[in-house]
Amino acid sequence: MEHLQAIKRMMRYVVGTLDYGLHYGRAPDTARFVGYCDSDLTGDVDTSKSTTGTMFFLGDCLVDGSNEFNDFEPASLNTTNQLIKDLKNIDVVFHIGDIAYANGYLSQCDQFTAQVEPIASTVPYMVASGNHERDWPGSGSFYGNLDSGGECGVPAHNMFYVPAENRDQFWEGKEARGAMDAAKSVTPGAVSHILAHPSTGSDGAVPDLIVQVLDLKSIGTGSRFSFMATDGKDKIKAMLPTNFASEVHSGNLKNLGLIRILDYTCNLVKGNNDKVLIVVKCELVCQALDAEINGEAKKEEPPFVLKPKDEGVVVAEQANAPPLVMKPKQEVKSASQIVNEQRGNAAPAARLSMTRRVHPLITLNPYQGNWVIKVRVTSKGNLRTYRNARGEGCVFNVELTDEDGTQIQATMFNEAAKKFYPIFELGKVYYVSKGSLRIANKQFKTVQNDYEMSLNENAIIEEAEGETFIPQVQYNFVKIDQLGSYVGGRELVDIVGVVQSVSPTLSVRRKIDNETIPKRDIVVADDSGKTVNISLWNDLATMTGQELLDKVDSSPVVAIKSLKVSDFQGVSLSTIGKSTLAINPDLPEAQYLKSWYDSEGKDTSLAPVGAEMGAARAGGLKSMYSDRVFLSHITSDPAMGQEKSVFFSLNAFISHIKPDQNMWYRACKTCNKKVTEAFGSGYWCEGCQKNDSECSLRYIMVLKVSDPTGEAWVSVFNEHAEKIIGCSADELDRIREEEGEDSYVLKLKEATWVPHLFRVSVTQHEYMNEKRQRITVRTEAPVDYAAESKYLLEEIAKLTAC
Asked: Which parts of the sequence belong to the OB domain (predicted)?
């Protein structure tokens, strides 16, 4: 305290000068303790404060004495100048923390980078984060103050490349400390012991074997997990026991975690000399460490004692003080040499990650130039061929997901499709660059992203070996009772529900190629009180379907992504090639549904969601009275149906059927798809890939309907048109050919001015570069006047009740 007061009193007379700093030394030849001040400390020396502060330095470090406002620290211009003058003797500069003292002002970062440019452009300039890059309330920092000004290291993060596995956690050397702490947690030589003793002894005794879990992956349906076991030095492929899968699903064990092996066996892989560790019994030690354990970093050379006088260094002598311990001098490499060696030895994907910043998917837009993304392939489509006016080609697409769970669809055509189809593998992680983005076509997009990606043959796709991040699947769940609005549209839906029943596997012959494929139907329910039938196909029907069949008695919850909605049985769902199914997923929606079903759902009467629409086809009319509107409600809104199909019920008359329109098309008798006249004779079906001597006619017509508020043209297909006209298209064609045009026109007039109940969909389509509204009949029924009267009375009662 006396020394501090003395310093304060002497500092009163040192006013803003660098030429007369106060030197405070204990003894000759020791490091100098120098103090500077830029203002007079007036008043009581024990309580007064400098306007900007008093600076003390141990050694010859100097400051420029400039007076900064807004509590900015004085810029170390003199120190910078001294470093520039002495660059020939400097291999690397380490700047540990408080890089620019930016306090939230980007201009200060720019000023700092310009200040150090002569140094950083000559020798490696390595930085680490400090409180002025990290500190902000609620950010998880140690202090929780306002030192960073709110920037939280964003400029430092982007201006200075940090060679860390996770750049978002480079603050305070977290990864380095984590690695040092982690190295103390594993059993050294554990892998060597396992290889030397392929199984436990007869007494079952196993030494304390603790290993770290790397590259944790699910096998098959998720009941088994493989991983890479490491003791910090050696590694071996391994598999967890099936009863330990619950620890992974619950999140108790994650990648980089620690386990203690209690029982094991080591098997030889057929075809090579590799061994696989089969863990029979283990227990959890640690959920996850901050970094992979690297035992190499712990190796140290034997120290030797060097007396201070041998080096000419003067140190303070203390009684019983231990001798100074120093490591032997080793060859010192510059940081640039180390980085270049790392890049030279790294795989292409690793070099890409070290030299270029990885962009999150959410930051991409069509106006960006060079970017690199790190993504996992979460869905891979088939390589399809197509034919159009420009000729034949091929196409395939993938869905890519980054660490944040953001998704984007990437499409490749022709040469790019052939080049990258074998490279992209489902579940693997890749670095992708040199692609382009465009606005996504809402009609065909399958992920929640405003953009879609195109990759040509010049794109760069490199596998990121060793990456283990597993992006969380992003769901957009739809309640079962809301599925009706998706019928007839292209939009895919996600469903979460409780499994009610599972059917046996069936074999179905596909019409397009006569190939036999497996199918299995399941019925699921949710808290809307409705159930829906879902058809599972291919592997989902066999492998996943069998697992569901085994668990159906326990009413498992399933989350299914990318389901197609159809009007079969009113409303039904079907999986497609990109669909995924998770059993009892760790999701809040799944947990809520399970709780609802166990408490009340299993005792509730649940009705099929398609019962209403299905009843209309069977003669019931309930769905014909839901969403009842007049025609003017539809025609007055030209933009209706732009986002997705909307459905309404109508009571209208058919007022006109144009006799000169193309009322039908030639169809294959097997698959009902359009056929073309074959060369020579017969009709060619592209779907069945065969030539047939005969074909059938199927209606595809438009007719005008009217009600008291207006009129509109609607499209009608074969099944409903047959009911309206009263005969098949083949019969109407026969009338036209054999009985003449007058009989043909008379048959059409007989169908007009007859009232009908219609269930219609309203969508938007493009014709001659102009968007138009399309109204399509989905269900048709004659008017039941008793039911109609009852409906009108109910509507009148609602009006009078108001």
From this structure: 372-455
